[in-house]
Amino acid sequence: MSAKIIDGSKVASELRDEVRQDVKDWVDEGHRPPFLQAILIGNNPASNTYIGAKTKACKEVGIETDTLRLPDTVSAKELKKTVRQCNQNDDVDGILVQLPLPSHLSSHDVIESIDYRKDVDGFHPMNVGRLAVGQPTFRSCTPAGIFELLKYYSIPTKSKHAVVVGASNIVGTPVSIMLSREHSEGKATTTICHKYTKDLTQHTIAADIIIVAAGQPNLIKGEMVKEGVVVIDVGISRVADETREKGYKLVGDCHFESVREKASWITPVPGGVGPMTVAMLMKNTLLAAKKSIYPG
Ligand code: NAD
Questions:
Q1: Catalytic site residue 121?
Q2: Which of 28, 116, 205, 292 is the most buried if burial means most Cβ atoms within 10 Å?
Q3: Is the CB of 175 under 6 A from ligand 1?
Q4: β-strands 237-240, 248-251 pairing
Q5: Which of 37, 54, 93, 208 is labelled catalytic?
Q6: Hey, what domains does the chain have and what are their CATH numbers?
Q7: How confident is the model at residue 106 (pLDDT cuts 50, 70, 90)?
Q8: Chain-wide mean pLDDT for the chain?
């Protein structure tokens, strides 16, 4: 078997078209365009790339945006003051603090300082908590994008055995909540693996669906999966490649060729989950502007 490709670029482009139309309708009704405030600390090249992609997507769909750039020496107090000003500004609908932060700053503290009603990344404990109890919420963008992909390709999760590799707060944990809830979309029996998992293959070989977000190139190999598995590769790592102009290429967490031989569906890297994350951020920003999640 050679897996069919889940084309995240195509699905994200269709999703952005939908958001663009919804933004246009919203503005035609007499509202100002949605506004996303990004905050970028320091000069991490990957973060610069992500902010660039998000800014471009905003322009494409008619969402206004601005990036506040702070030095990597910024204090926690100064950063929180900036976030507070954005919280209080009625012209700001969504706030995004680009992660990772310099090591002297606590991402927990910074995320908690964001008004949860403007937390379009869906990282605030209020939004994660609501996800866990099945309440309307800003679903974090990568997990939400993964579910959009599964829905688009009519790949069911109900009653399947899903194995999530990676348990971060931004991908692994929220996607495992979404997969495992019996009264929400997932309805899957869900196993969560992380760096303390003793025998990863024991779990991945039994999976109907594998979602891998570990940041470890080639972690999942063909011999670790069963025939017909659905593989969603969230990982994005830069590996040196002198044949490329940039000197590196982007790879996921799967050994693509060997896993593809056995899988029924697989996401490529790049062009899989990445574009969906950005598209879902656009969707969340529009929801924030419309006060769809928190009407009060
Ligand atoms: P992280 O780096 O914060 O944590 C990694 C997780 O993987 C941890 O839970 C760790 O225990 C687990 N892990 C590490 N090595 C492992 C191993 N050998 N076996 C099992 N588990 C292992 O995670 P993150 O921030 O979710 O990022 C993970 C990857 O996903 C990175 O490559 C990141 O760039 C990428 N990412 C992509 C998108 C996207 O839009 N496609 C979004 C977010 C993150």
A1: yes
A2: 116
A3: no
A4: antiparallel
A5: 54
A6: 29-116 (3.40.50.10860), 141-274 (3.40.50.720)
A7: very high
A8: 97
